[in-house]
Amino acid sequence: MRNIQLGRSDLQVTPICLGTMTFGEQVAEPDAHAILDRAIARGINFIDTAEMYSVPARKETFGATETIIGNWLTARPGMRQKIVLATKVAGPSRGMPWVRSGSGMTGADIIASCEGSLRRLKTDAIDLYQIHWPERNVPMFGALYFDPAKDKPDSTPILEQLEAMGRLVKEGKIRWIGLSNETPYGLHEFVRIAEQHGLPRVVTVQNPYCLVSRGHVENGLDETMHRLGVSLLAYSPLAFGLLTGKYDVTGLDGPKTDRRTRLGQFQSVRDGRWGRADALSVAKHYNNLARKLGMTPTQMALAFCYTKWQVASTIIGVTSLAQLEEDIDAWGTGLSADVLAEIDKLRWDMRDPAH
């Protein structure tokens, strides 16, 4: 793997990023450390986390993932200089009062959250600090439509959020900034206001992107990112397991110990974009196509992200060393023009059921 540059920053990262939201819930600390060690040994230098992790988000495990990573770094002198470390400030609490008391995400909230992340990560600086989801009214996490009636007049201005980020950059606590679960409008505004006021410019957007959920990126955000010089970090490339094939026979209820059952909001067929019956139905078509072509579903789904021009780095989340090896081994799998045409035909027929 050759390192790639994130946006207009000086960050050079591997095209595979290790996502860590399972650490502290599904993955115990010793196992998480083993996964981190193996990822580094396999050449990955990019690690992504968030203050709200582990998932499912709850008071008891808030910040647990960052703490696990901080302990790992402390036990391995010199490791911090070898990796690019990304984390996120949670957006509005969304029913999580342990994140913050207010309903928004003010400049003071951003600064306080960053300080907390630095303590847990046991580091002096964060390489990429991202806003996990917008404070303003935005359709996300499975919602389809923008509803202006839901706008709130007292939302924190983007300028205030960027000013807080600017202060953190000047203090040396963060190096670059990014967004997540963002829209073309939001990205344009962050870049426009940053350039107008001489504030830090966004270098990445972290959004879902996979075979059953392409619209977040390919319905306009890809052009916006390309023209503004911003890089995409693709998350959920395996659609929460739908594109591994493991639910093809068992259905969405699956084994009682698996990830879906443990992640509250995602376990129901009726809740969350990855829990929709039509998402599984469409995923089965892609999984069967992969098998027909002599690939595993995981191989084809990851190869789709690994080879798309839109994607700078693909975030893989694993719960075991075996999953980590499989995901990294998929690197280098090619998809011919004919295969991509078959994939696009499926999308044309079935669209994006997990949008």
UniProtKB/TrEMBL annotation:
- Keyword Heme in the entry? The reply is no
Does the keyword field hold Oxidoreductase?
yes
Start and end residues of each NADP-dependent oxidoreductase domain? 15-346
**What keywords were assigned to this record?**
Oxidoreductase
Among Pfam families, the record links this protein to:
Aldo_ket_red
* GO terms for MF: oxidoreductase activity
Protein's UniProt name = Aldo/keto reductase
Upper lineage is: Bacteria, Pseudomonadati, Pseudomonadota, Betaproteobacteria, Burkholderiales
